[in-house]
Write a structure and sequence with these properties.
5-stranded mixed beta sheet, 35% strand, 4 helices, alpha+beta, Nuclear Transport Factor 2, Chain: A, 32% helix
Length: 142
């Protein structure tokens, strides 16, 4: 089960996020899946597709490199790095042309060979600093 779940996760990253194949989300993400990541694209396969479209519009050369994966039982944990060249609007800011990357921790829960829950923790502050949208020493309002 764990090896199968890891393969499903890796396929979503490679085919969906790295290659922009939106249809793979229909195959790998359950219709009732729940997205727990703040700012995520929504629940179910459409939510995954929204996230892929958003990231690839902001970073047309968007790519995720998986650094480490642990698969146990019905869960997959991954440490990865994703990003690219910012050529589209991102987080309400105009494109910068800057190549930027963020570290991400993902946790996915699986049932019946599909992702049914996702928790993602991207280093959003690090990305905003790299893109120049936040300067060190600038107070950040909550």
């Amino acid at each position: 089960m764990s090896a199968t779940n890891e393969a499903i996760y890796r396929r979503l990253i490679e085919e969906g996020f790295n290659q922009g194949d939106l249809e793979v989300a229909d195959e790998l993400v359950a219709p009732g899946s729940i997205e727990h990541q703040r700012g995520g694209g929504g629940d179910g396969p459409e939510g995954a597709k929204n996230t892929i479209k958003y990231l690839r519009a902001a970073f047309p050369d968007f790519h995720i490199t998986i650094d480490e994966v642990v698969a146990v039982g019905d869960k997959v944990w991954a440490r990865q790095r994703g990003g690219g060249t910012n050529l589209g609007s991102f987080a309400g800011h105009p494109p910068t042309g800057i190549k930027a990357f963020t570290d991400v921790i993902d946790v996915c829960r699986f049932e019946g060979g599909k992702i049914v829950e996702h928790w993602g923790v991207p280093d959003q502050l690090g990305m905003m600093l790299q893109l120049g949208h936040i300067k060190m020493g600038t107070p950040v309002r909550a």
